[in-house]
Amino acid sequence: MLSTGFTDLLDEQTPQTQAVVRLTTTGFPDTEITERLNPTHVTVRQRRPRFRTVLPALALAVTVFAVLVSLL
Question: Taking a C-beta distance cutoff of 8 angstroms, is the pair 44, 23 a contact?
Fold first, then answer.
């Protein structure tokens, strides 16, 4: 469920943010991401925090799901 929720949230982001997050989670440093995507270094650094703002909703959904499952 977590990977699907993460993927769903990522799919809702702009293509540039998707690319930055995917390369970051794969382990690429900012310099290589900048070389691959051609944005400025500042743009790369700004994309991750923007995506992190939607992650609390995913965390809440996972927590609620876990509580509901434990009640069964």
Answer: no
Hey, what are 50's tokens?
């923007």
Q: Structural domain of residue 25, as residue ranges?
A: 2-71
CATH number of the domain that 22 lies in? 1.10.10
Q: What is the pLDDT of residues 14-59, one digit of tens each?
A: 888 888 888 888 888 888 988 888 877 777 777 777 777 766 666 6
Is-contact 65 72, C-beta < 8 A? Answer: no
Distance in angstroms (rounded) separating the CA atoms of residues 2 and 44: 25
- Tally the domains of the chain: 1
Eight-class DSSP state of 53:
T
What is the phi-psi region of residue 27: left when phi exceeds 0, alpha when psi lies from -120 to 50, beta otherwise?
left
Q: How many residues are given for the chain?
A: 72
Q: Model pTM?
A: 0.61
